[in-house]
Amino acid sequence: MASVVIVAAGSGLRMKSEKRKQYLGISGLSIISRTIKRFDSCPYIDSMVLVVPLNDIEFCSSVIINEASPIKPVHIVPGGRERHESVRFGLAAIPEKMGVVLIHDGVRPFVSDEIIKSCIDGAMEDGACIPAIQVSDTVKHSEDGIFATRTISRSSLWLAQTPQAFDFNLIFNAHMEALQKNILFTDDASLIEEIGHKVRITQGSRFNIKITTPEDLVVAEAILPLFCNSEF
Q1: Residue among 148, 128, 131 nearest 139 (CA)
Q2: Would you list the DSSP string of 86-118?
Q3: How far apart are CA 223 and CA 209, in angstroms?
Q4: Helix residue spans in the chain (DSSP H)
Q5: What does the DSSP 8-state code read for residue 228?
Q6: In angstroms, how far is the first alpha carbon of the chain from the final one?
Q7: Phi/psi class of residue 135: alpha, beta or left (left: φ > 0; alpha: ψ in -120 to 50)?
Q8: Rounded to 5 degrees, what are φ and ψ at 28?
Q9: Residue boundaries of the structural domains of the chain
Q10: H, E, C per residue of 212-227
């Protein structure tokens, strides 16, 4: 069993909307509510920590929680200026301070029980595990964004997704070390790699999209019916 930190403290500028992207709707239900419901219904998750902008705490505590109607406990905490700060605050709010913790993008509402369990199992065995999918398109390198200079082999390239699962002490201590040493990293798995710990890869899904643009919302509406007879 595990806890999950759902990170939804971003501004969502690429969505070009007056409303934060996590509060936009997919068939009448907000993205973040669908994500909460996803983990609430997952049998491998014990509790949730929801990280949101400070000014949204009251809104999420009432409107979003009422909309999602979770059975499992949800602890709502304010996020920081950067994602790594928000994750650190979320980790600090986990009551158990032990076992496996998953860190998940709040705008990825289509993660399956299978991926969640596989990540938990991988973290229990190796300390860190992430879902990823292999790159299928040809990858080009360009110095100026105008001309392609070479083709990069895609055979060893993977696109990381969330949830990223870790032994709690491993990831919490890594975040504290990063804070002290001002270590920069792009995601939590890269932080674990930075401190010399291997990260296991498990198979992700092309349905496990991160909704960040208006086009993603269209794709999400198309994906949703595929889950109607299962998680959704």
Answers
A1: 148
A2: HHHHHHHT-SS--SEEEEEETT-TT--HHHHHH
A3: 10
A4: 31-40, 57-59, 65-68, 83-92, 113-126, 168-181, 188-194, 214-223
A5: T
A6: 21
A7: beta
A8: 90, -5
A9: 2-227
A10: CCHHHHHHHHHHHHHH
CATH class of 2-227: alpha beta
pTM beyond 0.85: the answer is: yes
Question: With contact defined as beta carbons under 8 Å apart, do 79 and 54 qualify?
Answer: yes
* Angstrom distance (rounded) from CA 153 to CA 168: 35
Quick one: what percent of the chain has pLDDT higher than 90?
A: 84
H or E stretch at 50? strand 45-52
| CA separation for the pair 57, 70 (Å, rounded) | 17
Per-residue pLDDT, averaged over 34-45, amounts to 96
- Letter for the amino acid at 232? F
Grade residue 227 by pLDDT with cuts at 50, 70 and 90.
confident
Q: Kindly list the distances between the CA atom of residue 83 and the CA atoms of 45, 94, 167, 173, in Å, as whole numbers in the listed order.
A: 22, 17, 20, 17
Cα–Cα distance between 78 and 124 in angstroms, integer? 28
* Residue found by looking up tokens 């879902």 in the block: 131
Q: Which two tokens stand for residue 147?
A: 């001309």
- pLDDT of 20 higher than 90: no
